[in-house]
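Minutes, project check-in
Item: structure for the 330-residue chain
Input as provided by the requester:
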Amino acid sequence: MTIDKQDHHQLVEEAALWMVQLSSDDESTRKNAQLKFNQWKRNGQQHQKIAADIEQCISSIQKISQTKHHKKAVKAGLGSAKAYKHLRAGSAFVIAFIALSGSTLYLSDTSVAYLTADIQGDSAQWTSRTLADGSRLILRGKSAVNIDFQAKQRVIELVQGQIYVDVAKDQNRPFLVKTSHGQIQALGTAFSVNYKSAATELKMLHSRVRVQTTNRYSKQQVIVNAGQAVSMDQNGVQSLPALNIYSEQQKWNKHQLMVEDLPLDQVLKELDQNYKGKIMFNAEALHKIQVNAVLPLNQTQDALKLLATVFPNLKVYQITPYLLVVSVKK
């Protein structure tokens, strides 16, 4: 059985988080983590393989690091002596592995579709384009699109990530955004689209669009109006909670994240979209923490400092310039 790239990345991140917990200073935490990690590994062959790969790499690094010379090398690879000092040896080895191999295998969102796309966004940035018809397009982080404007229609294929579109009027050429789950036909102007392998999410900011799924059994069509949000997947179109139009506009135009009673793990997922590397955290441990804040999406470090100030039990430490770990202090 094959597993798609995004699911594979998720499993690797989960395994790495277990490894960090297994190297905790607290013995009871380590024992509890070991029990749960063993259960996690029994979830399937892919879980077992990823766990074995990481454990083998950690074992190799531990053997190499016995010499004074190699200890210094690992220490330097973690970015700074200050960061290294606060980590136990075990977690240091885990993070060293992630830092070395993750940039190319696990922490990268690069795909063939991204590399061959007409427009490619960059990590930690917002890429703006004015298209040939005058429409405005914004790509968030490492997103990618293909553009196909013809005499009878205008098509944007979203192959990865999130985009915001402000559509220029052209009565003779419909404007469509397509993903593997279906298409969105603009009947007005502004909306955002978030494409993931499991589903495509639409947030309508102004006027309305027509959503049509590519379900093999039936092609469902739904009109989505301003303030509404929907998700479409292989099962059709599902309504999402009502959209705060102002907050969504602030995200795309001012690069600010405005949240009200949003779980911390969801906040970190948002911040991760515009971080140059990866923010790692245990979603289950942070889900019960509710956040009310306005956070800068372009300054991840500043946003995390604000969160750490509001929640003193929150521990944020940077392992490398491309890897941050967020956890709850014991």
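Outcome recorded: The CA atoms of residues 196 and 272 lie 15 Å apart.
No further action items on this chain.
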